[in-house]
Write a structure and sequence with these properties.
7 helices
């Protein structure tokens, strides 16, 4: 997978101008978040030209994904795996379970 191209595409998607926040913004940010963890080991920086309302929502939401980051950054394989398995249904619904499995592999 070309992770750099994916990161660029998801950054573009979240920074597209809009008068309201759409689901595509949220879904793109979730995938961007996970891919950034896989590649760089940290959450992504939101592009400065991102719609201000979306920017605030991205910085203050997504507790599940922030929890995965905390487990990932702790270097505790068990904590990360437990958080991932606990949220598996949600992650599958978000179509992000495969990325989380990749994150678990990178963490080991």
């Amino acid at each position: 997978m070309d992770y750099d191209a994916a990161i660029d595409a998801f950054k573009t998607a979240i920074s597209l101008p809009a008068s309201v926040v759409h689901r595509v913004h949220y879904d793109s940010y979730k995938k961007l978040f996970l891919i950034n963890l896989i590649v760089y080991g940290k959450p992504p920086k939101i592009p400065s030209h991102t719609y201000s309302v979306l920017n605030m929502r991205l910085e203050n939401g997504f507790e599940l994904y922030q929890g995965l980051y905390e487990g990932f950054s702790s270097k505790d394989d068990k904590m990360l795996a437990e958080r991932a398995v606990k949220a598996k249904d949600i992650l599958e619904k978000d179509t992000n379970w495969g990325l989380v499995c990749k994150l678990l592999c990178v963490h080991e």
